């Protein structure tokens, strides 16, 4: 290979090696040439240029592979830009002749592709110097684009992108021709072609004003269609095109505006176009027929993800200052997306849309705004949460029944709450100690607003509020103990409200889980307080059927959270915990059969939730207090765990008898059981392998899941 390291190709050495090794030898020479050309003496290059051009152009016809043709094109272009340009038009004509050739055989394809790559490299490197030949070159490329197969289409589009890059505004006469030929390929069945078109159009929009004025709607529709059934590469390329075109339509480049009297799009118009893709996908706008008027039919997931990325590109292109000025409008718009019925038709779709909107907020607010602007953004988010909560309270307190759409409003508001609270929590956590004005300024009322969401009718919103409070406590550790006390007090005062029991126990569990991130910790006595609250909840769960479920879940959740405080706290409460765990499961098959005979649908739901909670607290104990896992403790833990395994085989008959709504609770019991077994040494439950294997086989073969 050392023989390949020379300015000219060593033809003698090439002739002596076997046919199979020649392409590798040539590739090695091209790699060496790539490094050496830029550093070589210009006189040396000019002396050997004629021979070098002959050798390189000769390689075009030798059917080079993709890496070789890329280096070949790069070296030829570099050679002309460093040395003399006398023969450049001659070489360009030679490449154009190869491209024009009607030979469509597979054997000739690599030669054609190499010629296409060379044309692109020439224009990229020498640009306007080749201006006189460009109309013919572009026409030639566009003509062969029509008959090319996918690999050819992709290479021609990449070449056109380089031509546009090199010529800039000088290629204006061909802009519309390139656009017309390229746009139809944005929905090509080959993903590589879609990527190449998106990159070519992205280059074109730098100079072609019509793309972000007259053609703006068409470009948007095409991009949405291009995202259907796309892969990651296509989503990145298309979202970059869509986001950039939208940003340019809103704020055109100064030079372009000076040249022509351009009508700028308004922010509302641009956001409405983007929202169409997010909510309706590639089905076009209202004028494209009745398809849009039907509410049914969900958006292809790839389209929603692609449009999400386009939002991020759009804001990033406009920059941090723009986001700072327009944050209120932008926030209102993205939160409207997630509350729209079309974005949340099923539970899975709603979760997906929430993830998309959270990504838009995190990727823009989290990376483009400075400290001061982030505090302003947090205030804005607080206001949005407060406004939503007021609307929810109005629906909840409306006893007259006049508000018919109340349930739908609450369902929509939970998605807004989740996204807003997640972003608020992330903002406060990244601001750290500088977030204190948000807590201390009474006019903002961050704590009151977030705490009010703990009473939201939706569980998802309550969980998000709890997580947000934890973020505040981690950012400002001196607030942790007062938060805990306040939640404990409210839980005590509002223990007759199911939402309050659920919401405040979520908040306490979240705060306890955040203690290990706070260097200050919490007073030792707080552990005792949590245990007594949890015990009280579990003891009184059976007294009021309206609160049974919430109190059972809350009691076990608090005990599970307590375990995260580690062995120093848990040691004192371990005997009590072992007793609680033992009592929550039936001790024998006889007890289990008796339970099945007397239970009804509701009591079974409470029982299953209680057992899932107990297993979860056990898992938390095993994970956070390994020092306390003596042989004796493991033996005592195994009693309820073995009971849980026995119960698993009886659950299908319980579901059959009492209804499919128990499936979710039963799945939770299974999940928690597998969770804890994964942490324990397998030796400890060797005797239950048979029963466990039966359950695992049923899981993997989806025996219970007819869907």
TrEMBL record:
Domain of life: Eukaryota
Protein name: HEAT repeat-containing protein 5B-like
Organism: Galeopterus variegatus
């Amino acid at each position: 290979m050392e023989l390949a390291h020379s300015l000219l190709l060593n033809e003698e050495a090439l002739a002596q090696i076997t046919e199979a090794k020649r392409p590798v030898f040539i590739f090695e020479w091209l790699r060496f040439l790539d490094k050496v050309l830029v550093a070589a003496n210009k006189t040396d290059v000019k002396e050997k240029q004629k021979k070098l051009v002959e050798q390189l152009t000769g390689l075009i016809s030798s059917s080079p592979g993709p890496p070789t043709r890329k280096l070949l094109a790069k070296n030829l272009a570099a050679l002309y830009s460093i040395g003399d340009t006398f023969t450049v038009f001659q070489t360009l004509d030679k490449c154009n002749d190869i491209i024009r050739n009607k030979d469509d055989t597979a054997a000739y394809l690599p030669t054609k592709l190499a010629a296409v790559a060379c044309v692109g490299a020439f224009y990229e490197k020498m640009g306007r110097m080749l201006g006189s030949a460009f109309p013919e070159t572009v026409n030639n490329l566009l003509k062969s684009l029509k008959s090319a197969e996918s690999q050819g289409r992709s290479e021609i589009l990449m070449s056109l992108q380089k031509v546009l890059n090199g010529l800039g505004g000088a290629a204006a006469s061909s802009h519309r021709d390139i656009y017309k030929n390229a746009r139809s390929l944005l929905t090509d069945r080959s993903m590589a072609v879609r990527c190449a078109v998106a990159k070519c159009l992205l280059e074109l929009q730098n100079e072609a004003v019509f793309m972000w004025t007259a053609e703006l709607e068409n470009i948007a529709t095409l991009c949405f269609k291009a995202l259907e059934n796309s892969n990651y590469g296509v989503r990145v390329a298309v979202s970059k095109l869509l986001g950039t075109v939208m940003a340019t339509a809103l704020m055109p480049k100064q030079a372009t505006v000076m040249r022509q009297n351009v009508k700028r799009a308004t922010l509302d118009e641009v956001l409405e176009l983007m929202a169409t893709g997010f909510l309706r996908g590639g089905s076009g706008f209202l004028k494209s027929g009745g398809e849009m008027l039907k509410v049914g039919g969900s958006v292809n997931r790839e389209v929603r993800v692609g449009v999400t990325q386009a939002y991020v590109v759009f804001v990033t292109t406009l920059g941090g200052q723009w986001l700072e000025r327009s944050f209120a409008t932008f926030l209102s718009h993205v939160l409207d997306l997630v509350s729209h019925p079309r974005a949340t038709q099923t539970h899975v779709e709603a979760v997906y849309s929430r993830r998309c909107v959270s990504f838009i907020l995190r990727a823009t607010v989290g990376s483009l705004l400075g400290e001061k602007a982030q505090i302003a953004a947090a205030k804005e988010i607080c206001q949005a949460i407060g406004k939503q909560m007021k609307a929810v309270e109005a629906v909840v307190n409306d006893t007259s029944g006049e508000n018919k759409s109340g349930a739908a409003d609450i369902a929509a508001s939970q998605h807004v709450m989740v996204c807003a609270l997640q972003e608020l929590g992330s903002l406060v956590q990244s601001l750290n100690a500088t977030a204190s004005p948000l807590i201390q300024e009474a006019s903002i009322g961050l704590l009151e607003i977030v705490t009010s969401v703990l009473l939201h009718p939706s569980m998802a919103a309550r969980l998000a509020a709890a997580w947000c409070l934890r973020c505040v406590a981690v950012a400002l550790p001196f607030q942790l103990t007062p938060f805990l006390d306040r939640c404990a007090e409210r839980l005590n005062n509002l223990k007759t409200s199911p939402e309050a029991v659920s919401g405040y126990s979520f908040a306490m569990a979240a705060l306890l889980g955040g203690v290990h991130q706070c260097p200050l910790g919490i007073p030792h006595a707080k552990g005792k307080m949590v245990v007594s609250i949890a015990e009280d909840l579990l003891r009184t769960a059976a007294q009021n059927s309206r609160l049974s479920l919430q109190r059972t879940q809350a009691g076990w959740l608090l005990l599970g959270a307590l375990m995260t405080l580690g062995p120093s706290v848990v040691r004192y409460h371990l005997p009590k915990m072992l007793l609680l765990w033992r009592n929550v499961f039936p001790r024998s098959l006889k007890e289990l059969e008796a339970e099945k005979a007397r239970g009804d649908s509701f009591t079974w739901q409470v029982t299953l939730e209680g057992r899932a909670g107990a297993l979860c607290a056990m898992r938390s104990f095993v994970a956070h207090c390994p020092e306390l896992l003596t042989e004796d403790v493991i033996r005592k833990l195994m009693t309820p765990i073995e009971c849980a395994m026995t119960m698993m085989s009886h659950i299908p008959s319980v579901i059959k008898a009492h209804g499919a709504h128990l499936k979710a609770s039963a799945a939770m019991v299974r999940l928690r059981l597998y969770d804890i077994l994964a942490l324990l040494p397998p030796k400890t439950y060797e005797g239950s392998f048979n029963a466990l294997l039966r359950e695992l086989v049923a899981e993997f073969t989806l025996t219970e899941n007819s869907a």
